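Translate sequence into structure tokens.
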Amino acid sequence: MNPAYISALAALAGSVIGGLTSFLTSWMTQQTQTRAQLITAEIAKREALYGKFIDEASRLLTDALENQRESLSQFVTMHATLSRMRLVSSPAVIEAAEHAGHVIAAEYLAPNRTAREAGPLIEAGELDPLRAFSEACREELRLLGPGDRLQPSRRATEQARARFAATSCCIAAREMRVSWAGTAKR
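Result follows.
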């Protein structure tokens, strides 16, 4: 085969490979950026939804401590928000939200409480039905977040490395003892 053809084919193949590599890199970068934008938008949507539930549940809890009512009409907004959460949220978040709603409903049926009566209960955590809900939401958003949110913190990484180094040292020391013991027996 003519050497001119070989060099021309090599140049052509190099151009095709370079162009294909450039195209694939651009495509993958675009896909990654699009995915990150979708995740960010989903997180913002859920944060707004969970914030709306927390605002409404807090308002209802305060009202329940001060008033006794047997009407369910005040629960409409909270129930609508809970129903919207059922479309997108994890079972842990839904369960915590339902529990908060049950606690608030029970407080409406309980006798009214003054701020002095409610204060110690709130401090003890007995009247904080939104704590479990907030923690479930935080965990869900952490898991949903972009890749860097899933990475362990620097401190956790350093602790894991320190444990690994300590374990490696222990294993090395054990192996040295075994090798010394084997040498001493000979």
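Note: The radius of gyration is 30 Å.
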